[in-house]
Specification:
The structure is a single chain. The protein is α+β, with helices and mostly antiparallel strands. The chain has one domain. The chain contains four helices and nine strands. Strands 1, 2, 3, 4, 5, 6, 7, 8 and 9 form a nine-stranded mixed sheet that branches. Strand 1 (about 40) and strand 2 form a beta hairpin. The chain is globular, with a radius of gyration of 22 Å.
């Protein structure tokens, strides 16, 4: 009798462990990839892998716009476009979806630029609140998923990368990396945390 009770407990624990494992493994499969912001550098568009305006809104929460339309592929609620001009990082556009017209069967939406509302009428703003590494990608997506086990499964690996060290919105230095070099960079960056 005691042995039968022990086997039932062991089976229950194994089933719970298996369910937890399946739940954690499926989050990447069931999650929606997020729409990235855009960086323009030397006239070329890059996919940003940094959330620049997030840090501004952390410091100024009252200025964060409230999205009127919710989209699972853009939980930030906005899309920002940045440009590097003379080694300075500028926000040049901040759009959100907005309702245009609504009737019983149809809902029309358009992108509206909120940059002048957030930054007191300015049509471009230097990102002087930002200090850190800016990561931008370009080219084809080589694969989705974990690059060297340092990225979550929803982050794609691109052909080329642009890394820039930024201090108060000024580019101090930068590097162009291939996907292989980028993986090595991530491994060096995160290796100190491995046992």
């Amino acid at each position: 009798m005691q042995r039968l009770k022990f086997i039932k407990q062991k089976n229950t624990i194994m089933i719970c462990a298996l369910m937890l494992f399946l739940i954690f493994q499926s989050t990447d499969l069931l999650s929606t990839p997020q729409s990235p912001d855009t960086l323009i550098y030397n006239g070329i568009g890059y996919v940003l892998q940094s959330h620049i305006l997030h840090w501004y809104f952390v410091q100024n929460p009252e200025k964060r716009p409230t999205p009127r339309v919710s989209i699972s592929s853009n939980l930030r609620g906005y899309h920002a476009t940045y440009e590097i001009v003379e080694n300075e990082l500028w926000v040049i556009n901040l759009t959100m979806l907005d309702f245009v017209a609504r009737d019983e069967c149809y809902e029309s939406r358009e992108r509206k630029n909120y940059l002048p509302e957030i930054f007191e009428g300015k049509d471009r703003v230097k990102a002087d609140w930002l200090t850190g590494i800016l990561r931008a990608a370009r080219g084809n997506i080589l694969r989705w998923g974990s690059a060297c086990n340092t990225l979550s499964g929803g982050i794609p690996l691109y052909e080329n990368y642009l890394l820039m060290d930024i201090v108060n919105g000024n580019i101090v230095r930068g590097a162009r990396l291939s996907s292989e070099e980028y993986i090595l960079y991530l491994q060096r960056k995160f290796n100190p945390f491995e046992d």
